Amino acid sequence: MPFSPLPGIMTDSLTDLTPELLQEHGIRLLMLDFDNTIVPYTTDVPTKEMEEWLSAMQASPIQLCVVSNSHKDRVKVFCRARGLDCITHAKKPFSKGIRECLQKYGVPADHAALVGDQIYTDTLGANGCGVLPILIKAIDNHNFWLKARHVLELPFIFIARNRRITK
To answer: What are phi and psi of 9, to 5 degrees?
Structure first.
């Protein structure tokens, strides 16, 4: 699989993705990063818009699974409360969690996407497994390290800027 830091699709928010857009790309399984993709690192309470998006996606033919590097129980509690499957300790950008998810759902990599806010974990991991990488803007880069990481990602975001979708 290709080692690439470039996302296949870029958008501002997870809620910009629709079942129709994903189906146009042949996607049947959408893997979701958790922190700064669904909710900020500092909370596990989603916005009303995010709750509505999750409900709408669950009612669609697209299967959802949270694939997170987190070791914290808040991911499992969040997912259980919303009827979502989750894989924690995913070790992105390595393939462990992504491969586990593909196998669990029986979906080939070319019919799956992984959406997240980080190039060095989510995008690299997705590309390495042959899954469509979707990069969104982080919900809240609330500390120095998150801001610094984003600065290091800017060259790749600039190169991939033509892959942006809009509502």
So the answer is: -135, 145
CA nearest neighbour of 41 among 161, 141, 126? 141
Model pLDDT for residues 51-98, shown as the tens digit of each residue: 999 999 999 999 999 999 998 899 999 999 999 999 999 999 999 999
Token readout for 35 is 């922190």
Neighbours of 159 (CB within 10 A): 12
Residue pair 129/121 in contact (Cβ under 8 Å)? The answer is no
Pull the structure tokens for residue 122: 């989510």
Sign, CA torsion 7/13/19/21: negative
Q: Report d(CA 1, CA 75) in Å as an integer.
A: 29
Beta sheet of 132-136, edge-to-edge order: 9-11, 132-136, 112-116, 29-32, 63-67, 85-87
Task: Give pTM, 2 decimals.
Answer: 0.90
Which of the 8 DSSP states describes residue 87? E
